[in-house]
């Protein structure tokens, strides 16, 4: 495979190398019109006897999964080609003799690409086309500067691995490389090979014969055997030029002249690593003495055009590529932020991500860091809940809640999250009011139609059982059951006269009944009917009322209203409502629609702060004093009295505004 590539390359070099004006070309010795070419061993003007081509196929049947050694690549090897003969689920791996993994080591499969190892650059290929049957391959120009081992990660039957490389042989001729080139740089498609002694060549040859690579010995091709190949390599070509190739164009006879153009150096490489470019420098020299002379001595039309050549092929040192920090995980207080840190290497003007171990000579930057955009304030509960505002029933209790900074200062509520503010007031249920007085409304009519009378109401003390006074639990402050009323003197008095009530509209429970109501003047023995206008100043008795022929249910009793929760800006007050039967026991027979309200709004008016004429701001910028929290000092409290007072009232909380 590789020998055929060398032969075709040599033919191509002979027929199409760097065509120049006038039909002349530059030989590998950098002379215009020279016919010297580089042989398969990389020797300018060589005869293919200075190297050996080592080739073989690893076909051993493997049984266990894991890494299996395929072949050893010796030090100084060039033109390395390791290729699977068919696509498979196996992987090729490369490791140095010192144990350092280069490709696919430690059960980690690398991506196809370029990898440095053994002093050269290996190209790792893995065809991924569905229709492709080609297997994996390692390709490298060499030369290697240490012994490398090729392995197969065995997972399915071995399809065969073809290996091939070139080593300098016993009759090796040192490559004729111009002095301006450095070892390892390209030279007309070849890399300079390191010379090996005869003993090294013989020893390597003996090792190759002695070590049977799982049943098949490597083939070593010399100058004599390169023209004929074993039958199992039908893809190889003879070193003779095939008949179907176009023969090289005949060189025109050289013109006799004393001076010609010669390459005397290269421009500086565009990069110090990672594959740059440089151009040959041509100078006019004397043909025999090679002494540089002015360019006017040479034909300017024959001066070769410099062509770009790669240089400094070795990759640049790996480096840590640091990404941008992410946003802080918290808007205030201590949070975390992250960034991406990748090991990268530049080659051929491309930045490639490589394994982290390539950056192990550098300290890896941190990928996480703490962050704090601003200091967080938080809600603090300064006091426990107060006692319930009522001894029984439903009341309210309060506690002190403040917004406090992380250094302990009380700050404005706006600096804390209002959605997370703990409640500072809540209802409390002390249970049924077993020791409270329950009252009905006052009766509508006075007990006397004229003169002094009373209006009455029902009073009951709720304890463990319902009874009338005296009871020990409710105390001596029993509400009055009667209140005085006076409808005026009875003689000559104008009053409303009400007739008898009609029958009740229903047989039990709450019904209605009607009666006549007229305006009369009562004399000693008679009544004088007057126009209703005459009695308009008096409250007219109802002409309709509810009636109860017999008990058939219960009625609602309620306590007095509690104090309003706020003195302004809308509060609420509560009372307890119970349904009691005729015998003053708890009942559930009351009409729910007639149940008195247990809660109502109160004090809806706006809060109007008291204006103290003696408390005013003496300076226009008192808002700065408030922001700087200087109101705790007497001087500022007096100079900015109004502003400091407003802040103090606002921070007093809900309790302070009641």
TrEMBL record:
Main location: secreted
Subcellular location: Secreted, Extracellular space, Extracellular matrix
Cleavable signal peptide: 1-18
GO BP term (any one): proteolysis
Keywords: Extracellular matrix, Hydrolase, Repeat, Secreted, Signal
Molecular function (Gene Ontology), one example: metalloendopeptidase activity
Residue segments, region Disordered: 174-259
SUPFAM superfamilies: TSP-1 type 1 repeat
InterPro entries for the chain: ADAMTS_ADAMTS-like, ADAMTS_spacer1, PLAC, TSP1_rpt, TSP1_rpt_sf
Biased composition range(s): Basic and acidic residues: 193-217, 232-243
Function noted in UniProt: Promotes FBN1 matrix assembly. Attenuates TGFB signaling, possibly by accelerating the sequestration of large latent complexes of TGFB or active TGFB by FBN1 microfibril assembly, thereby negatively regulating the expression of TGFB regulatory targets, such as POSTN.
Protein name: Thrombospondin type-1 domain-containing protein 4
Native source species: Sciurus vulgaris (Eurasian red squirrel)
């Amino acid at each position: 495979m590789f020998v055929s590539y060398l032969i075709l390359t040599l033919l191509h070099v002979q027929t199409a190398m760097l065509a120049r004006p006038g039909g002349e070309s530059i030989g590998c010795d950098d002379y215009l019109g020279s016919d010297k070419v580089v042989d398969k061993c990389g020797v300018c003007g060589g005869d293919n006897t200075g190297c050996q081509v080592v080739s073989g196929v690893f076909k051993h049947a493997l049984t266990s999964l894991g890494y299996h050694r395929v072949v050893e690549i010796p030090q100084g090897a060039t033109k390395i080609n390791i290729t699977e003969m068919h696509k498979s689920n196996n992987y090729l791996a490369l490791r140095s003799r010192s144990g350092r993994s280069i490709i696919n080591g430690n059960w980690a499969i690398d991506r196809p690409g370029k990898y440095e190892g053994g002093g050269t650059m290996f190209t790792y290929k893995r065809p991924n086309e569905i229709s492709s049957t080609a297997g994996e391959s390692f390709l490298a120009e060499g030369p290697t500067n240490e012994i490398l081992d090729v392995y197969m990660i065995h997972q399915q039957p071995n399809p065969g691995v073809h290996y091939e490389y070139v080593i300098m042989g016993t009759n090796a001729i040192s490559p004729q490389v111009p002095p301006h080139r450095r070892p390892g740089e390209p030279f007309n498609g070849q890399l300079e090979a390191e010379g090996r002694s005869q003993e090294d060549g013989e020893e390597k040859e003996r090792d190759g014969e002695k070590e049977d690579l799982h049943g098949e010995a490597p083939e070593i091709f010399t100058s004599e055997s390169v023209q004929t190949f074993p039958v199992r390599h039908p893809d190889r070509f003879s070193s003779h030029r095939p008949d179907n190739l176009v023969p090289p164009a005949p060189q025109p006879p050289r013109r006799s002249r004393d001076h010609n153009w010669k390459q005397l150096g290269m421009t500086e490489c565009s990069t110090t690593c990672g594959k740059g470019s440089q151009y040959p420098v041509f100078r006019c020299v004397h043909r025999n003495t090679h002494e540089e002379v002015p360019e006017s001595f040479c034909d300017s039309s024959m001066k070769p055009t410099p062509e770009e050549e790669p240089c400094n092929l070795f990759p640049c040192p790996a480096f840590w590529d640091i990404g941008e920090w992410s946003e802080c995980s918290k808007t205030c207080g201590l949070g975390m932020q992250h960034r991406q840190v990748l090991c990268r290497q530049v080659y051929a003007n491309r930045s490639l991500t490589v394994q982290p171990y390539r950056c192990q000579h550098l300290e890896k930057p941190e990928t996480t860091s703490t962050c704090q955009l601003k200091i967080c304030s938080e809600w603090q509960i300064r006091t426990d809940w107060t006692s319930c505002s009522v001894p029984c029933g439903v009341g309210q209790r309060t506690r002190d809640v403040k917004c406090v900074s992380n250094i302990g200062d009380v700050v404005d509520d706006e600096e804390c999250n209002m959605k997370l503010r703990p409640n500072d007031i809540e209802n409390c249920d002390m249970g049924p009011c077993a020791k409270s007085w329950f009252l009905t409304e006052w009766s509508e009519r006075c007990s006397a139609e004229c003169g002094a009378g009373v209006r009455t109401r029902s009073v009951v003390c709720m304890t463990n059982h319902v009874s009338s006074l005296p009871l020990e639990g409710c105390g001596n402050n029993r509400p009055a059951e009667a209140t005085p009323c006076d409808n005026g003197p009875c003689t000559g008095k104008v009053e409303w006269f009400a007739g008898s009530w009609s029958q009740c509209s229903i047989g039990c429970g709450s019904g209605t009944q009607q009666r006549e109501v007229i305006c009369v003047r009562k004399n000693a023995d008679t009544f004088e009917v007057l126009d209703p206008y005459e009695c308009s100043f008096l409250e007219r008795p109802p002409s309709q009322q509810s009636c109860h022929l017999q008990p058939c249910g219960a009625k609602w009793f309620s306590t007095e209203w509690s104090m309003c929760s706020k003195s302004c800006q809308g509060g609420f007050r509560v009372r307890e409502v119970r349904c009691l039967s005729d015998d003053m026991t708890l009942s559930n027979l009351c009409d729910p629609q007639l149940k008195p309200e247990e809660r109502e709004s109160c004090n809806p008016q706006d809060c109007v702060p008291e204006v103290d004429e003696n408390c005013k701001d003496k300076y226009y910028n008192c808002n700065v004093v408030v922001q700087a929290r200087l109101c705790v000092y007497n001087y500022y409290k007096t100079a900015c009295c109004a502003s400091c007072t407003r802040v103090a009232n606002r921070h007093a909380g809900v309790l302070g505004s009641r």
